[in-house]
Hints:
Chain A is α+β, with helices and mostly antiparallel strands. The first copy, chain A, is built from 14 helices and 23 strands. In chain A, 33% of the residues lie in helices and 27% in strands. The longest helix of chain A has 21 residues, at 167-187. Chain A is globular and about 80 Å long.
Amino acid sequence: MRLSRYFLPVLKETPREAQIVSHRYMLQAGMIKQASAGIYSWLPLGFKVLRKIENIVHEEQQRVGHLPMLMPTIQSGDLWKQSGRHNSYGPEMLRFQDRHGREMLYGPTNEEMITEIVAAYVNSYRELPLTLYHIQWKFRDEVRPRFGVMRGREFLMKDGYNFDLSKEAALHAYNRHLVSYLRTYERMGLQAIPMRADSGPIGGDYTHEFLVLAETGESEVFYDSEITDLTFGDRDVDVDDYSACQAVMDEFTSRYARTDETHDETLFNEVPESRRRSARGIEVGQIFYFGTEYSEKLGAVVQDETGQKIPLHMGSHGIGVSRLLGAIIEASHDDKGIIWPQGVTPFHCGIVNLKQGDEAADGACESLYSALTALGLEPLYDDRDERAGAKFGTMDMIGLPWRITVGPRGLKNGVVEVTSRRTGESEELPPEEAVAKIAKIYEGKL
Amino acid sequence: MRLSRYFLPVLKETPREAQIVSHRYMLQAGMIKQASAGIYSWLPLGFKVLRKIENIVHEEQQRVGHLPMLMPTIQSGDLWKQSGRHNSYGPEMLRFQDRHGREMLYGPTNEEMITEIVAAYVNSYRELPLTLYHIQWKFRDEVRPRFGVMRGREFLMKDGYNFDLSKEAALHAYNRHLVSYLRTYERMGLQAIPMRADSGPIGGDYTHEFLVLAETGESEVFYDSEITDLTFGDRDVDVDDYSACQAVMDEFTSRYARTDETHDETLFNEVPESRRRSARGIEVGQIFYFGTEYSEKLGAVVQDETGQKIPLHMGSHGIGVSRLLGAIIEASHDDKGIIWPQGVTPFHCGIVNLKQGDEAADGACESLYSALTALGLEPLYDDRDERAGAKFGTMDMIGLPWRITVGPRGLKNGVVEVTSRRTGESEELPPEEAVAKIAKIYEGKL
């Protein structure tokens, strides 16, 4: 993309309404614009990152066999009366009437709707196990929306639902979700720690939240420092193997790690003092197993092998897709702006032309642009007639991991400069080698 | 995908509520399920096609330089008061109050919101031309939603907005949209004819609708039969070239083609009688140029080269993404089910194992599955323990363009059968050649 043809309204002033750094930088970098309280438009740069995150979530869900679908945003109130949640769900649920006076609502979650779908079509144990998910906009009418996309009212979420024949099978689905979530977050450059959590209005005994440590996190968390040494990495876990998934669950949840809601001081004190940590965390996902409550109320029953009708064991599992942008920025930035992890960066590298209009510089930038594009990479070429300082400021703020700087002086020596956004280190290389280096980095070979 | 692990609830009975074939087949093929009147859940097969169509729209928009972004579904009523449409828009607009009593609405379109965004950030002629678009769910509270996704209440739409310095530049953007739309629809296997249309509540003098001819279309259309001989094909139009785009516009709109709303009997009678046609059509898109109305009301003004402040010339351009599934099925089906055009098919081919459990048949199917997958193709393998008739019935209903049938008898002769869904013609080929044939078809070489 050439910046002269892009829509990237980088702000010079610091937005006053932003209390935390991710909110401030998303506004300054021209990623989002507030439409109403807690409701945002995603400008091209923000949308590009949102879509990358969404795609990682899709890929990792499908890798473990979960099936993508899409439920609507608007639901019937009647459905929620069947589950009993129409009254119990608080004023965060946006309720209204359609033109015929029917009670409707903007879905904050989809347990009722997905259970009704499975109840309608699944009749036999042979059609199980089944995990369906969707990535859809939700609405929660927060009293005081704040922190930008971190606590917005309209937000994008992946919510998935498993349907199983037994508690044992449903707990395997629970473990399988943990396995896929660990990989999902790591691909985004995040360490998200599973912590025992409170089940809230969804209900159920088994639930873990995934928290990213960050000073601005809304939850206080307590954990054994050994947990931060764990990485999932590139393991090839057989997700149909109950014990393989259980082993991952055990490895990642056997050490103490809880949010303030479930914190137990006595248990925490059993952790050696040198390893006890308290910090703040941002919730980026949650998994639940809640048994047969919804399937009984909404009639999701199947015949088992003996012909008996039994209600399905269910769980629901969420990833806060739009909120992840905020969490990633909270975890990865400096005082100049965002530093995108390579897995989610909107463009693979920036190209800064120090002297727009100079024949050699323009030509070298065009060649770099073509060469990178031909390799399937997406560069953002700052081809504006602007001072070098303004161009560097934009690149630093929007946080592309790599920048290639092109100027007449370097070109006379046959080199351009490749700079890491994270370390600030630069290296002079011939243009072809600069391209080869960027390509290798994204192939994971550097 | 293996059917034993998929969620494909193909219905045996004909759904009584469906009045048109696309609605009936989408229900029968397990693509959608009604959630409330005019509101649908997209089951995995339906979602897969929806996503393919969405991706084609994204690719073709970006090919001509339009920038993707995403505006929220919920809008503030205040914004619509500024444009004057809060009162004038009918009861199809879903209005409600949030918990603080603020007037909100579920966006049926986004002229106000996008104009406010551009007004906030764009100040100079140097930042133009600019065309922003998004693909987002809309809500129109139809009195009598019907015809499935063809006239639903919650529907997915691409809506794009151009901002230009002059009427001439904005009419070029109008023409550029026509160019990109022609290519978009053809990639989906559709012939969509641009017809002079009525501008309705959006306003403006210049507008064309794109209509797909189908017996079940909601509009009566009148056209010169020569128009159906036109194809856009694989032309490489320079979309920055005003006259190149104007030439395409002239070619595709100079012959008589109007909907009943704008039909002019006198003009129509000037078409030679043998070429006069009347038929029914499904609207799948519309383009508008409407000048400076919104930019004046919402303050989208820039400084031109002389320092003068001038309001921007705008247009808006829509493609009915979810409705396109219905339109494609209306245009491409037979009495056994859907026939997907190759550009939008959910799976590239089906594999039917005539004797599940037979060692040779199972092995051959697995090899075909691996070979196709290794080539980047997505087969759907019917590995269920079902009769051949049921498997054929499912494949015919869901409409994959190609089927490979594998049975012990054929395998003894070293062959499998490759069948075209559209023609019904079959060919016996060794498995490797069957794979090569399917691959060549999707490379566009057969």
